[in-house]
Amino acid sequence: MVHGVGEFWGKVQADMLDTCWKHLTPFLWLSILLLSKDVECPVCGLREAILPPDYDQKGDVIIGGILLLYSSGNSFLPTFTFRPKPSRSTTLVKPNLRHILAFIFAIDEINRRADILPNITLGCTVYDSCARQWHAVQHTLRLISGPGKIVPNYNCYKESKLAGIVGHKMPSTSIAIASVAGLYRYPQLTYGIQSSVPSDKNKFPSLHHTFPSSNSQYRAVIELLKHFGWTWVGIVSSNDESSQWSNLELQEALSQNGICVEFKYIVKDRRDKYENSRMLQLWEVLASSISKVIILNNNLIFPEFLDKIYVEGKISKVLILPFNFPYGVIPLLLLTLNGSLIFHLHKVAIPGLKDFLLSANPKKYPKLRMLVNLWKYEIASQEIVSKTTKNLGALEQFYFDMENFRETFQVYSTVYSLAHALHEKNSHKTNKSEAKSGLSWRPWKLNYYLKNIHFQTLGGEEVFFNEDRKSVKFDILNFVMWPNRTKQTTKVGYYLQNGDRYGVYINNSAILWDPYFTQTPTSVCSESCRPGYHKVPMEVIHRCCYTCAPCIEGEVTNDTDMERCLRCPEDSWSNAGKDNCVPRPTEFLSFDEVLGVCLLIIALLVFFLNWVVVGVFFRHKNTAVVKANNQNVSFILLLSLSLSFLCSLLFIGRPTKMSCLLRQVIFGVIFTISVSSVLAKTVTVILAFSAIKPNWTFKRWIKRHFSISLLILCSSGQFVICVFWLIFSPPFPEQNTQTEVGKIISQCNEGSVTAFYAVIGYMGCLAVLSFFIAFLARKLPDTFNEAQYITFSMLVFCSVWISFIPAYLSTKGKYMVAVEVFSILASSAGLLGCIFIPKCYIILLRPELNTRSKLVTKRKLKRTAT
Asked: Is 457 within 8 Å of 451 (Cβ atoms)?
């Protein structure tokens, strides 16, 4: 009965210490541990009042070790349909045997060397933490107090001294050790993954790390995710404090790099009646998630949990395993991990360690209790008769990978680090006898030497405890479980950090994914936006979920998953797919296109017609028709019309600086001369009839000078406007990218719009005045009265240019220029046709009417009638 109560109380203590350790101070821990009398290790099954060391070796100076040696699991390699229920008889203790043997190997190697700690023998005392924080605290107190019962603040070592503690692999257990060892400033060297929690030197001043910082580890994971384009992941972690801190840091790092976490599931380190329901809950979370990548951010406390998940059904996910995940300890879990990617320390060489491991047996190390247990279960199960004559070479490499010295090197190097620190400390002592005897022992002084330690192992590897180490290298392994239950771990890449440069280098073709995946898996919340589209965030909490929207005209995306479209340069435009900027086509009224050719032909035809009229008038210059209509002004008008037809050609072709300066000015001056000539002819007709009156004073003066003077006067006003235009705001060529989408319009900027419309307006005023005067004189009696023809020609001229203004303002690009060219040709042709074609008709087809007698006769008849 008493025994039953004691057993019950022991289990209560174990559960209480297991769940509440992180809320207890070291002094409260100490009180509970001193009351503990009979507690069972939940892994190795030992039940003693005082757990003995797993290995003990005498020496002048003791290096303590609290290692992770045991983890429970099933000894059977299962099939897909059969999974035996675990029991004490079928449970195999699978040790991290290499770690404790590497620890012993380092001690023996240092003792044999003459250059490190001469005349001083190193010893060791190694405990197993059983993956429990409260066990680690208990063993730490035993190491500090010495052999026997725990006596706080007393050192019971008689012949040797404790130099420091090596351990632990798990951050949570490292914190528990540091909380006690730090009170006495005993150096503590961890050999496992580093968390930001124990990196605080204010809280843990005597804690040192051989493992790269957590920032390097997170960066390595992020670079791997970015390499494959995985932006939608899940995280499964344990519920210890360091894992939670690690989760926060990992999530922040993922978020800063544009990677979203779909879910975060925390596995509780408890074995109770709710275990099956939590297992089912985790399976449902994994099965319902759309992310194909799961990051296992844990501290080695729930591999069996994932083992049981497999019973519910195969879940095809890519697992990214942390540096300390025990992927080789659970056979069933190996099927779950098929195709996963594992981060591990860079593989190094430890000369002589492999032969040392293969030669180990209970006869050689009878005090190594775990080696004795291993022989008891493994060698016996393999029906080997002589248990003590065999060695580890007879065991299956599945459990004891003798070629893998990654974590093993961390244990090896921590022992060497303490030895080098002791050597440096003793080298600074003046009294050699004190150095040999270890008098005035001050182990906390080793922290100073450890902080600056830097040495090279026999294998050529550098070891130092610089938190800001500049060079980090991790191997990336691909774990494969073949159908015949054999495993293969292949290096498929590595992560390299050198200073501020870092990245992953992966051979994609070397990776064997889970058979469920027919190609490299993708893990995104939304499908990638192809070039030409950009991401539009959805109204959800994750920015990794989005829709794809096409870019607008003039903007492109030339890569996948771009968050915004890029504006094309001014001289470029987006192509049809919106994925590239192409040069904009330049548009202007060219001689190579149909519209330009048509206008050129029309201009040349009317120019040729104009010179035909000039030739007719010149040949018949002495006839009555030519003389009766102000011969000099007629030739000036014909010459200006000829130039106006040619000036239209300045508007066709690529605009240049010279063409832009000349075309509007020449057009304005020439057209003003034409209109002024028409005005002069009109006024001359009216004054001619006035001159018939007797004794009119200005008769002779008007006949000789008036028409030319009027022409010069009217043209001078336009000339002055054009001079001011060219001086103060001249036209210039420009590339217009705003008027038409996707085109560059090569055009002439008129400089001053006011000056341009002033030129047009001035011509318009002269034309209206000519029309008004000609309209009044249209019925004057004369055989060759031009007033009627001038009236009609000015009506055509004004109609063309009144229509020009809205047409010019409503068109763009080359069509705007074409409108102006057409207006020039139409108005000039109207003047030519309406004024001179009727006269050519009389000269060429009715020569009988082109006589002075006919002119005089008709004048007399009209005077008689009036």
From this structure: no
